[in-house]
Amino acid sequence: MPDLTCAVVHWNTPELLADCVTSLLAETARLAAAGLHAEVVVVDSGSCPAVRARLDTLLPAGATLLAAETNCGYGGAANLAFARSTAPLFLVSNADVLYLPGSLAALVELLRERPEAALAGPASWWDRERTLLLNPGFPEDRERLEEDAAAAAGATWPAHALAWQRRMAATAFATAPREVALLAGACLLARREPVVAAGGLFDPSFFLYYEDTDLCRRLRDRALPILYEPRAQIVHLFNQSRSPQAAARLAASRRQYLDKHYGATEAEHLLALAAASVPGEADFREWGPRDLGTPGPPPRFVWESDGESLFTLGLNPQIVPAALARCARPALALTGSFWEQLVPGTYWARATDPAGERVHGYWRFARP
After folding, report:
1. pTM given for the model
2. Residue 25 is part of which domain span?
3. In the structure, what pLDDT confidence band is assigned to residue 244 with cuts at 50, 70 and 90?
4. In this structure, are 119 and 185 located in the same domain?
5. 175 domain residue, yes or no
6. How many CB atoms lie within 10 A of CB 257?
């Protein structure tokens, strides 16, 4: 019996999958040298026939293919591998993840050192150059929505946004493991026994989005620690879809999550609260936003600062959630490879002092 099952969920991204599995097999080889046996399973969740036909020859030796007949969603596909596995540890992964040396061993070691914990997750870089660090996230629970509502009522969005930045930076740049409320489902190491006791890995009724939020909520309800391990590092080349279908699915899963954990009546109240608490760029006019338009080459951001700065990049004017970068000099340029990775849409960026108290620059730009 393996000590660890690593399940990579795949849907129509074969090139990314090959890179992911290659990096993951290098990690399992390191574990094998230390006496821990791990298996790697790729769950193909109903890819198109042309892609499915390539997988047998595309996958590196050492990985097993588990093919679902239809697209059963991220959680459903992960559950197929979880049900098949008997290993006490289970890793679930997106196919757009690259495992950096030592990442898997660090997660395994952490759960061995902390037997009371149920989940562990790594630090995630957004780009191959490892410039922008993704924050682990915060659950969309009543407390967060009420904080946003208070900021809207008091017209204190700038201070509220910087407070969130400080929270995100404290976790993202931690130097030792720390307990968190949420980990992204793109890469999770789970301990089988407590996860089963909490109702299983993912609720299959969440086809896509919020399946990780629901899992973490179920574990928190049982007082089971969820740990962020900054010494385990991956690159997550996520490509957030802006399609109407994705937006509709996200909204449906959000409503489903709130219904499940708060009941239909309270969910209606929280959704109304959220709808009335969405800041616009005008709420941050004191920062003097600079519109970069649609830059031809990748944008370069320059600001005035005498020391280290903190740079954040996000998909909304508040820049929550955000990717974060520490800058020794008052400038940051997006690389060409990262620029190509970004999906079309509008982005916002901000530079502050390291403590997140003074804003040095605030920008908006479009990715065509």
Report:
1. 0.95
2. 4-137+180-236
3. low
4. yes
5. no
6. 22
